[in-house]
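Entry type: protein chain
Record version: 2
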Amino acid sequence: MARRLLWSPWPWAVVLLGGSTALVVSDPAVGFVAFLLALGGGWLCGIGVVSAASRGRRPGTALVTLAVAAVAAGLLLWGFVAMGPAIARAVPPLPRAALTVLQFAAPPGAGWIWLAALARVVDLIPGGRRTAPAATSPSAELVPPWVTAHDVSELRFTAVPLRMRTLRLLIAALMVVVGGCGGALIVATGDLAARLGPTAVVVVVGVVIALPAVLLFRGILNRRSVDCLVRVDLARARLQVTAGAATLEVALRDIDRLCWRRESDYARLEVRAGRLELTLLCGLARGSAGTAARLPALPRRVEEALQRAGLTASVTRGGSTIWNSR
């Protein structure tokens, strides 16, 4: 439970938004730190919504959930613009400060949801980045297939070799840079930012700084995509993972941890055996033509081989299957 809370975006969003509200109560002018905390809290809320939507087993369910969330986010932003000033004048200082923080937090959260929903829609377009041309519905998306010959099972897909903790640090650094540039922009514009109001300032920061930064970040990840091969030799009870020029080969009994997540932007394979470690992010990669950025289920005989090697499986709320040594 502690580990789940640690990696969940919601507790940290509450901490950041609460800290920002406390700072705004003491200084209604909204300083740089309060602004940065509000941006980070809103972004974490967007991540939480997208992660919750991605837990649906069917791609269509995730798309509908993201579409509803995107519409709700748009209505929320419209409400802040249309009714926020009137509400702020009629409430005490603490609710007014919370409303101000939410005005800053809503655009990055909504933007993250919109980007995720847009990516899902692009996936459904024939000839799109991750979808097969023949796909006519979300359920028709083609995932990379396992190829079995005798005692060997192979899977080929495209992925980004990147550890999850490194990805989290990069995203946090991206938010710091975006927040820093946004704060510098507010300081540089001086009275102009105060006259425009928080909603207009956040929209400008989002369009001029945040959106290009996110698109650049995704583009860099796409350029790091490599062709990968997972090969399970059941006769020898060995696993071989090749990612570009890197190769990891280990006996199944020597695996300490194996994570297999099929869906969402965090679809991935993680293998750790002693000091050897390799993580392949499939969900964030530039998919090859005709395949979706997802992973298929492990074949039944591969799961049985992992069990014979002394590994036990558990399924997380996020949809990952974790195989740990006993």
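Comment: Residues 126-140 have pLDDT under 50 and may be disordered.
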